[in-house]
## 1
Amino acid sequence: MKTRFLIAALALLAGIPALTIGVTSGVVAADKPVVMADATGTVGGIKVPSTNHPITTDVPAEATHREITDDQKRVRNYADQPPLIPHAIRDYQIDLNINKCLTCHDRRNTAGSQAPMLSVTHFQDRDGQTLGTVAARRYFCTQCHVPQTDAQPIVPNSFQDFDSVLGHAQGGQK
Amino acid sequence: MTIRSALLGLWRLFARPSVHFSLGFLTLGGFIAGVVFWGGFNTALEATNKEAFCISCHEMRDNPYEELKQTIHFTNRSGVRASCPDCHVPHQWTDKIARKMQASKEVWGKIFGTIDTREKFLDKRRELAEHEWARLKSNNSLECRNCHSADSMDITKQNPRAAKMHETYLFTGQNTCIDCHKGIAHHLPDMQGIEPGWSMKTSQK
């Protein structure tokens, strides 16, 4: 109960600035009713583009990007990073009936497929018990492992891996 | 006795020369009737060999066809697509007739509602899938090879992974398409006990 009240109080606090902005902008709009039509600056502290408002304009969708399916392993940015999937996984079925990924990456099938076996950490259930095969909580591969496309990041990323931070970059590729 | 005499009477009628009709009428009429019958038969056969016919039943429309629509055999960059009979009915005439005769069981299933609900379909899916796997296995994946020819396969254009698998299993004749490519056009049933084509158990045989 206590936490509920706390959350409610926090929500109220967070809402106060929005409420005040709403009130002030309402006042501004009442004073100058044409303000929305030609303003390029701010309305009540919120920046509004003057023309071609994004909501009212149809913006063409960006082209979809190509999947990277070259079968090349990518360097991991940190030791715990789930390895990326370097091949197409279209229509791969992962459900109660079958896990398509495991038909190659399961221990029993790696000799025929020459695929890397999923690591033994996947055999541990939530109690730390190591099972004979993949644990239920690790069954849905694409929760962690994903294929990549050639899309460029929308937001620039200044991530540096461990070795770069320590200043001896020989360890990683960067 | 009565059946025998009736048959005998029929035979006498059949063997007796025509009294009223000329030879020309009978031969030409027989020929035209034959053309009409044969044309009609083939037209009807072709009509049942169309996707529109398959998905005129809700069993096929709501289950396998819905699943097909997601896959690369329905939608892809070049717009070539496979329809139901491309994979499920042989293209050769005699094989086609044989398959069509088998398919009369499916009419029975339709009448008695063998898979008329989603649940019934899912329960029966393993059995139905096994029939198709067995058929494609025994005809060396003929319906796959109607479009995908191993001779025309340029493995330098394939991913190294796929190229290696095809070199190891397909070109050696060790496996056929369906051994590895199960569930490419429809969802798979419970695959308990079914090893993939590249597993050691399947390969050794």
## 2
Amino acid sequence: MTQVLAPGAPDAAPRPSSRLAGSDRRSLLLWSLGLLVVVVLGYLVLSPLVYLVWRGLTTGQGFGLGNIAAAYGVPGTGEMLLNSFLFAGGSALVSTVTGTALAFFCVRSNAPMKPLLYAASIVPLIVPGILYTIAWVYLVGGNVGVIKRAFNTVGLGFAVPDAFSLPGMILIDGLHLSPLVFLLMYAAFRSTDPSLEESAMMSGATVPQTVRRVTLPLVRPALLGAVLIMLVRGLESFETPAVLGMPSGTWVFTSRIYDALHTYPIKYDQASIYSLSLLLITVAGLLLVQYMNRRGERYQTVTGKGFRPRTMDLGKWRWPVSIGFVVYFLVAVVAPLLILLWMSLLPYYQAPGIGPLASMGLGNYSELFTTRGITQSIKNSVILALTSATAVMLFTAVISWLVLKSKFRGRRLLDLLASFPLAMPGLVLGVALIFIYLRSPLPIYGTLAILFIAYVTRYLPYGMRYSGSSLAQVGIELEESARMSGATWRDTFRRIVLPLMAPGLVAGWIYVVVVSVRELSSSILLYSQNTRVMSVTIWELWQNGQTGVLAALGVCMVVVLMALVGVAYKLGAKIGVREG
Amino acid sequence: MRMLEVRGLYKGFADESKHGRVRAVDEVSFTVRQGDFFTMLGPSGCGKTTTLRCIAGLERPDKGEISVNGEVLYSSVTGISVSANHRNLGMVFQSYAIWPHMNVYDNVAFPLRVGTRRRTPKKEVRQRVERALEVVDLGHLAGRFATKLSGGQQQRLALARALVIEPAVLLLDEPLSNLDAKLRESLRFELKRLQRDQGITTVYVTHDQTEALSMSNQIAVMCAGRISQVGTPFSVYLQPQNDFVADFVGLTNFIDGVVCEVSGQGGTVRTDNGDLVVETLTDLGVGDACVVSVRPEQVQVVNQDTVRGGPNVLAGTIANRLFTGESMDYQVDVGSETIRCRTGASHRMSTGKPVQLVLPAAHCIALRRTASTSPSSAAVTT
């Protein structure tokens, strides 16, 4: 539609030939841009898949299913499968119940201190999984756990699951994932038209009846979607099974993959088969979510209109409910952070109390600068986070422009490719990248470049959500009216589209920085001596038992990440709701 | 003097559900004189917005020619197609398309700061923006953020932005449809006054017949991509050329019948409930099936006992009545038909009462029955 015109053209009747040339040049430009994007995107997303399948299905004698039989013939496989699903199902249950309850009371009730409730509900999302899990070891772990010991002294120890057991893993992972459910359900409850409930009340239904027969059925599609997403997340989860499961012999898919690649002899075939299996399950799960979302549209609860949600009067339950949430806040948010802070101030771990106060100091923090490799890993993390966030946002801004605003033929394919990594567990991506670059003539194995590729691939879908939704907000009429005002395509893009997209792009950039700094499951397979990142350093400090330094590094990380999220939140971004 | 000329405009859209293309705009031709207010009126999907967007340059027609003030903007024959930003036309969008990241002043100044007008001196920009804001009575809000304006103010801001470039033609795409009824009515007067004072040639798109009738010099009634009738508001309302126009513009009764006599302009139509004398027969001969159109406000409702007899008098009973404030609306059962009548509010009769209806021959128009009376499936939305 846009043509390149010589200045002063409106007066003189221009020659048709020059216009056609201009229009052709533009479409050629668009076409080659699109092709370039397809090739790069296809390489990033599809090459890991191809290599995984190829590696999994070839044995020494060519193609065959021998690897599958071998991998599933390993003793303990049945138990591993059972554990995987118990763990994923259990943590999905924990996160769905807590997240939904929090969201319901936060949106639809007159519970006091709602802003605090909201903040409490999303903070665990900001804390890196590895830190959250390690903190919990010191809360409910066998001999050291503070809470565990407190309950033991009053003879209620059985009520607190040990961190190094399946129930403990489920509880910790579930609490860590519950902010995701909270954000998904928060959106669903907010967008329910209150008049639907009011008409149920007018029909004579009581409040509990209304909740059970109208409110919950209306958010059922969102709820089912959340459960499935959490199941997938539980299966992908690496930190909890690695920190708590491996020492106690509770194996799941992810820890098996890690183990296959980190114990001698290295079992690449087994890793590839487990990775493929895990990938198949996660893809199936997310396809199901998408299918249900499409079916769910007939409920039409999400109309994009800003309703004022109807709040329910809790009556005499107002205070008991609030106390419940304060307890949740203390246990799930404050306690893990406090224990980290406590650990970081002591030269070696001692249970909280009056005695150790004397030995408190900032020794661990100064050790951050002296311990070998830590400053290097901080530098690496910063470099990787900044470069991959910038690359992701620039790349996805172009992709979403092609998908939403151009008439490029392959735009549906682009959208599909860019969202696919959502279904790819970090560990699986790591395995695939090892296969590719171990033999590739490109000498990037063991450099920061391979981590950069992993981060960019993993966080493309998040970038797409941000740039896509901010571009979609720029209504077509806003661009058209600029053109009617005489603006050229460049004017329109620079003065209308970009300024309107900017908050979304910045928020997305910060979000990708945050998740890149937290990233562990891909990095743990791809780092080398000189390319450690912060999360890997924490993992190694944990392995070496240097908990004081670990906690100091963790506290610094959490403070910086929270500040970043605060900035993003100010920019109007809903952190995390885009994870689904 | 001819300001805007559209000749044989054709635009198809690929339709995924059906094979082939949907004709959104099908051989549309019309002319707008300098200073006229020209309205395209029709139901959604009739192609009126697509036609407007073709004139604006936002949509590329497949065939036809568009010229403004003698300059060809688009021609499928010579391959000329001036892009939207070089056409010097002003447009007000249905959503107003006010840029939310700019204040009122910057929104209006934007057209003078971009493209070929980017070198407009600062002083001139200020003068022209202030004048444009003065015209729409927004001068006092220049520094306010555009998103803080009310619906009516946004509409006037969009108008000021379109007027600031002193466009050859002003294009308005349902500019009043997003406002509430009261505001719509007052802005209708305002818009008409502005258009007349500025003497600006205007093309207006709407589905609201009251808007079209009250504001226009010329109305083109559109249906399924074609123009059904072009004329003044009076001729479109009083002398519809086909049953679609009669049905779409205003409210009307259709009575089925067969022409049994032709005399001059008029004739007689035989219906189930007796013969009707009509003063206008449109394109009909003896023996042709037709419908007689008569507006509710032209039907006289008289009591049964004041027997008049004679032609064009039908006996019936009142089935339903509605009081609308300014009038009484009756539904009267006459044999197999139900006829709507509108009388003064003081003329009250109760439901079930037998009455006689007088249908003045001067207001009865016999039209050919076409398929368009039952709205055809025009798949494209405007």
## 3
Amino acid sequence: MSETMNEAVRPPTDAAPPPSRPARHRTTPIVPERSVAGRTLMLLIAIMTFLSAATLGGVVLVQKSAVAWSSDVGREVTIQIKPVEGEVMESNLRLAVSMAKATPGVASARALTLQESQDLLRPWLGEGLDLSTLEIPRLVTVQLSDPRDADVEKLANDLKSIKGASLDTHAAWRKQLNTMAGTVVISGIIALALIVAATVLAVIFATRGAMATNQEIVDVLHFIGASNGFIAGEFQGRFLMIGLRGGIIGGLAAILFFFVISLVAGNVSPTGAGAELGMLFGRFSIGYDGVAGIIAVVPVIAAMTAVTSRLTVRRFLSQIS
Amino acid sequence: MIEFTNVGLRYGQGPEILKDLTFRIEPGSFHFLTGPSGSGKTSLLKLLLLSLKPTRGTVTMFGEDVSDLDQDRLLLMRRHIGIVFQEFRLLDHLTTFENVALPLRVLGQPEHHYRANVEELLDWVGLGERMHAHPALLSGGEKQRAAIARAVIGRPDILLADEPTGNLDPDLSVRLVTLFAELNRTGTTIILATHELTLLDNFAFPRMVLHGGELVFHEQGQTAGEARRS
């Protein structure tokens, strides 16, 4: 195919171009911004990003609390000595403490006082009951310096010599806690997958709508020789910007949400009860890694929006070609 | 450059729109394509633009049988063919300059590379002072000149025009066809479809007359009256 066009009309492209008029500062996008239902889609992506980030943050909170709680509980074992007729409780307590202290890997051991033991029962038995008349089980709390090296089995064997003594390693609690945390994490992953699927579907519908709105532009681009890749790229660029804006809005809203939650949780019970809640449920703070995770959601959502729109446009163009 | 051999075209299971077309278009020629409405002019232009494939026969362009070409090769070949429509088909949100530069922009050329050439072409078609105007602010004649500039900015070997004067008054129509004739003198092969036989009387180019899907060639210098009688 020869280059025969208009040599007399215009200079060849390799000639020095003549001085031109001042350039315009910005090239107008080929797919007009207003032709894509951008605001609605941006709002939808912002909501989806918020939901993704909130789910992710929730999973991180639960996981962190579970790990921290499991770790705390794992560093402690409890010796329980039930009252047995003919046995002297105080001497058994001292014996149990000394056995515990003699066990490798144990940092400290302390018998709870009678008053402390009664205080532990009070929430279940109620106020106003005279517990001094009851023989109640007594506890020895044993702190482990390193749960992996502690010879808990030896301690359990040693305690067999004390009548009514038993050792609670909280293994059942930890197992249940880990199962619960695992369930929450899996549920969170399923929720994230559903949110992603819903976002992809919304972007597909929005892209199809944009293609229908811009059919004339697509036709013009086709007959002037634009490739399907170029046309898809133009739509992808538009949707990438919508995805980025929506993602940033949703991500910022999620970070703000968790910040407010941590502030509210801290202010509701700043004293002892708050500390107990913190022990039980964590500090309601997702931390820097959680914030980093939420920030990472933004480009993922934007890229997913862009890639989805590109694939939708390519499919549409290949169907009409 | 263009060769049709026993070409037929039908849409789906419908009747044959074009029947046994056999002709050859030489490089650098100018042909009017005429005939009554519904005679198949637009369908023939679509075959020439490679946006349709014939249901029978062979279309050879630039020495290649187009039915053997894949999408990528068709795309490359289409870049050597310019097209002008009756309804202009300019993009309303782009300025005249951006509309004309669009074929170069889709090729990935940076604006600084083509700006001077686009401006010079706009000056040549008389739109130098209107380059920053949007199509909504242009007259019919200005829009058509912008569409022609867009069709030729990529230096096509073939320029197709589908009723380019359909929305213009007779005087402006003659001036516009004169513009096509000037382009033809620079080497561009031109096929201009129109049903305005009075317009053709002003020019001595050969005519391809479609009637009922069949094509008849009339040589240079034939008048509209003679074409009608034949």
